[in-house]
Records
---
Amino acid sequence: MRVSAWGKLGEVCNQYLSKGRKVLVEGKLVHDESGNPHTFTRNDGTPGAAFEVRAATVRFLSAAPSVGAGDVSWDEHEAASVSEEADDSIPF
């Protein structure tokens, strides 16, 4: 399943996520006009179909690898959460 994240949420995911990291994603299921999954052709020529999740909130569940002293890291017991709505909300 594909997951897409846009704006500030996409930037944070790009910076802190890597293969194997555990996350919880909340968002909207994206489909084609008839409600079916998007169809595509794989590299080997076989057909495939998949839905996409457009992320609204991403919660980091596993610890971030520490690369440098200035990097942000989370421990297993305190999950960090990033929401697309946080930046888009109007404060009045």
---
Amino acid sequence: MIVGSGPPQAYREPMAGTPCSLPEAVQQLVEGVSSPQTFHDTFLTSRVYCEAGEEPGFVAVGSPPGGLIPIFSSEKELVVARGAVAWFSMMGADLLSLVPASYDLLLDGAGTTPVRLQLGALRQTGAISVDYT
């Protein structure tokens, strides 16, 4: 996790195995040229940015079950939406492990393609496959 205050600096972490950036994955999903699974895989391996609360944790809008946690796909989207605020970033997979299930995520709410993500649709769950031969 990276923590900061004010506008985020130009930090980039390689996204091994990710075919495109998170904003590109959203656009491809919206246009119907990509699958939800591809978006999910990209989300898990992408860095997302969040406004930090006054106490450790996320800034949330509303309360469960309709509450939202705003997240951003880039430093630019965070600054456009929230200005110079305390912030932190983490990988999408880490974010999903920390966000309460009773909240949804709002990705790039002030951007050109805002997306509401229902956590139940994004969480990774284990699966067992049984094959009788």
---
Amino acid sequence: MRHQVRALRRALAAGDKAAAEPVLRETIGVIDRSVQKGVLTRNTATRYKSRLSVRFNALPSAPIPAAP
């Protein structure tokens, strides 16, 4: 689970919303499965998902162009 969250954070740091969207969906699934297996409590999982979703929604729709 931690590897998946790190991958999402790297995708969010890159600033490309289109590339981060599939990673977000996969990460939320991994977090939900962690709750089912008892690795995380429900409230902790909800907090993770909320914070990651807020960061995802804060990304601009178009990718940020790289500096020349």
